Amino acid sequence: MTRYLITGAAGMLGQDLQRALAGRDVTALTRADLDITDQDAVTRAVEGYDVVLNAAAYTAVDNAETDEDAAYAINATGTANLARAAAAAGAKFVQYSTDYVFQGNASEPYDEDAPRDPLNAYGRTKAAGEEQALEVHPDGTYVLRTAWLYGAGGPNFAKTMVKLAGSHPEITVVDDQLGQPTYTRDLAEQTVRLLDAEAPAGIYHATNSGECTWFDFAREIFRLSGNDPERVKPTDSASFVRPAARPAYSVLGHRRWAEAGVPEMRPWLEALETAAEDGVLTETW
């Protein structure tokens, strides 16, 4: 029987990975259970497993601008530690990455083979994690780049919008950044499909299909949570400056799914409708 190890198991994606792998031989480790920056601890933890799924990450994008060393320790060094241990154990290694490894100035979806060109500190640390994992375990590393995650298990944009709907008559949301909202339940289930298909290792773009702006996304969240979408007003990025630059265009292409014989993930709006049915669009964290 295949044995699975999940790191970062308490996070939003980690929780959905546990649900997607329910009924299988799974060990779920939280940050308190395993410090992925400790190579010796990681090597001991990974021994005996067939698949290692790394849902642990430093995701505070703005904080990374002034705390890049801490972000690098988790997103790059920690990732390499896990990949190295997986290689030694003969295990597959799944690393979740981000659209932020790209500059965000393209005009068509980024291909999986497009050169990395990160825009900010967070993106640099995630790009380094990809590179190091693929270098130390090239035959067994699966890099799944994703974006705009939301789900049941933690704070995220969708839940924030619902919370604001209950406290603000109107809100403004940027309408000049394009991307792909991705439901963590879909991402977890797609990961399992990829592994079950015995697909080749390498880079895959694991986002729900289609594209929209944050403004479009917010309006649909309002609609599906029973709020008036007309209460969401558009603004531009120049009016909403944050410490870390955000890519203007984060749409990822899905070419490699067809090559692997696995259907790409469903449209983002269909996924959001399912999330609403699942109770994700609530005020509670």
Automatic annotation (TrEMBL):
Q: What is the lineage of its organism?
A: Bacteria, Bacillati, Actinomycetota, Actinomycetes, Micrococcales
Q: Which InterPro entries match?
A: dTDP_dehydrorham_reduct (IPR005913), NAD(P)-bd_dom_sf (IPR036291), RmlD-like-bd (IPR029903)
Species = Gulosibacter macacae
NCBIfam families recorded: rmlD
Report the protein name in the record.
Answer: dTDP-4-dehydrorhamnose reductase
Q: Which residues form the RmlD-like substrate binding domain?
A: 3-277
Q: Which family does it belong to?
A: Belongs to the dTDP-4-dehydrorhamnose reductase family.
User: What would be an example GO MF term here?
Assistant: dTDP-4-dehydrorhamnose reductase activity
GO CC field: cytosol
Highest taxon of source: Bacteria
The enzyme's E.C. designation: 1.1.1.133
